[in-house]
Amino acid sequence: MMKAYKKWLIAIGSILLVAIHTIPFYILLTSSFKATDDLSSKWAFPGYLYLDNFVNAWNEANLGRAFINNTIITGVAMVLVVVIGSLAAYPLARHQTKWNKFMYMLFISVLIVPPLAILVPLYRFYVDIQALNTYWGIILIHVTFNLPITIFLYTGFIGTIPKDLDEAGMIDGSSRIGLFFRLIMPLLKPVTATVIILAGVAIWNDYQFSVFFLEKTEVRTITVSLAKFFGQYNSNIGWVAAGSLMGALPITLVYLALQKQFIHGLSSGAVKG
Amino acid sequence: MDTKRKLSSGSVLNLFYIPALALFAVFVFYPFIKGIQISFTNWDGYSQDFRWIGFDNYSRMFSDPQIVNVMKNTLIYGMGSTFLQNMLGLLYALYLNRSIRAKGLIRTIVYLPVIISPLIMGYIWYFFFQYNGGALNDIVLLFQDEPINLLANADINVWIITFVNTFQYMGIAMVIYLAGLQSISKEYYEAAQIDGASSLKQFRNITLPLLAPSITINVVLNLIGGLKLFDVIIAMTNGGPGYASSSLSTLMYHLYFSRQDAGYAASLGNLMFVIISVISMSALYFLRRKEMQQ
């Protein structure tokens, strides 16, 4: 008796939870499919198929170009984060001198530097070296600010690989540098997956760097394009909603396909304190 | 043999972190020091003509009419979201920590906003709260004639932004708490049941103490995230009306790019760095010490 009642309570609770957390996405859907002159409630789904919002948003916000820019910037930055991060972690994990322990602390301490706190000097520096509105300019910033957590994760992971392995490799006569690439690198696959997800999501979604360093239309990423678009057309909700939906869709699909890896990756990245 | 091994080991490896060190030096340490210099000038952000004004930018903070409110908002974004994310994250984790059917679905949906850009998440909630044709007002209009403009209400919009930030990132807290709960051995609870301890007592004496490491991670992480909140504010209110919902980061952005007040903006950047490091590091220190005591 008691059990049946409890079961019902949990079932209702679950339905409520799912409903509440779906509301904003539901509103996004109805808004983006509604014609501009349709003033009916946002809760009602339009009874017709209307795709103009998507066409207009795609063209006006230059989303095609933005997707290409996002892909280039995120792709290159991720490769660099993995290579530079894993390389840096190896001596920090394996050659723990006093000096290297200090270097490790120095690298990790960058985690608490809020990027916006150094915005003024960084922007000025970018004007000077003509790095504004360039792929390499924004990529180097992304790489730098994703390195601390990457180095943290790799250093921790390499620490769990038995040192016997390195020594066995050295007896074979290979140099320690060769050792890293032949023996260690292949073992880093699981933590590399975490790093790629963590850095990939952060870079793909970035707004607070991109808005300053990517002002020109040709180099704008999805978030910057959407923000400009929103600024111009915020009275036309259908357009902005359609743009937001398209902007969020690619990463949402990847998330739904690789859920386990995403949730595991992002949470183990969170365990950085 | 010996010299050869020495050559091929040890310090040679340190070459591996030179690229990382170079990036940090150029894009973090150099700007950081430069920022301290700029904060002692009246630089406007572009001209060659500026002079040293000592601590004027810092003393200006005390007479700036915006600053008290902006500081208050920053603390609400930081501490308010931290509180809400942890309470809700823990509640959801406790709810999901049993065999219920929709467990996977709930986790997927609650976690979804984590991977979406906070700017886009801000827009999505803007569609919900906005004055003209917002989803909330569609309901409000059923009960009264006038729509409500919550985003323009200076007392409420800060809390709406806090709520949106909580909604977006509570999934992380939930997943971390869930992992923490699953690592607690069932034997503790069995023993407690034999002793006749109520479920509330079990929660206070077993669950909470053993979750301490998860609490530390979540609190510190959410504090840092909330204190530097930027994207959601820009998306929902742009810091307005006026500076009513501005945080230190959005105020800085406006001062630098709209008001050409680079020197002052740089000093606020330094203030932000100090506030975030002091608050997050003392929270870390305090919570770690509590962990040790158990």
> What's the CATH class label of chain B?
Mainly Alpha
Structural class of chain B: mainly alpha
The CATH class of chain A turns out to be: Mainly Alpha
CATH topology type of chain B: MetI-like fold
CATH architecture annotation name of chain B: Orthogonal Bundle
Order of helices and strands of chain B: HHHHHHHHHHHHHH
Number of domains of chain A: 1
Quaternary structure classification: heterodimer
Find the structural class of chain A using helix and strand composition: mainly alpha
Q: Strand content of the residues of chain A, in percent?
A: under 5%
Name given to the CATH homologous superfamily of chain B: MetI-like
Uncertain runs of chain A are none
Distance between the termini of chain B: 51 Å
Largest sheet: number of strands, sense, barrel closure of chain A: none
User: How many structural units, i.e. domains of chain B?
Assistant: 1
Mean pLDDT of chain A: 87
What general form of chain A does the structure show?
globular
Return the CATH architecture of chain A: Orthogonal Bundle
Shape of chain B: globular
CA-based gyration radius of chain A: 24 Å
Largest sheet of chain B: none
How would you explain this protein's 3D organization?
Chain B: The chain crosses the membrane at residues 12-33, 75-96, 108-128, 156-179, 208-230, 262-287. The complex is a heterodimer of chains A (273) and B (294). Chain A is mainly alpha-helical. Chain A has a single domain, classed as MetI-like fold. Helix content of chain A is 75%, strand content 0%. Chain A is built from 13 helices and no strands. In chain A, helix 3 (63-94) runs antiparallel to helix 11 (222-233). Chain B has a single domain (66-293), classed as MetI-like fold (Orthogonal Bundle), CATH 1.10.3720.10. Chain B contains 14 helices and no strands. In chain B, helix 6 (118-129) packs across helix 8 (157-182) and helix 13 packs antiparallel against helix 14. Mean pLDDT of chain B is 87; it is low at 1-8. By secondary structure, chain B is an all-alpha fold. Chain B has helices spanning 2-7, 18-38, 56-63, 67-96, 103-115, 118-129, 135-143, 157-182, 186-194, 199-210, 212-227, 231-236, 248-257, 262-293. Classes of the chains: A mainly alpha (273), B mainly alpha (294). The interface between A and B is large, with 92 and 93 residues.
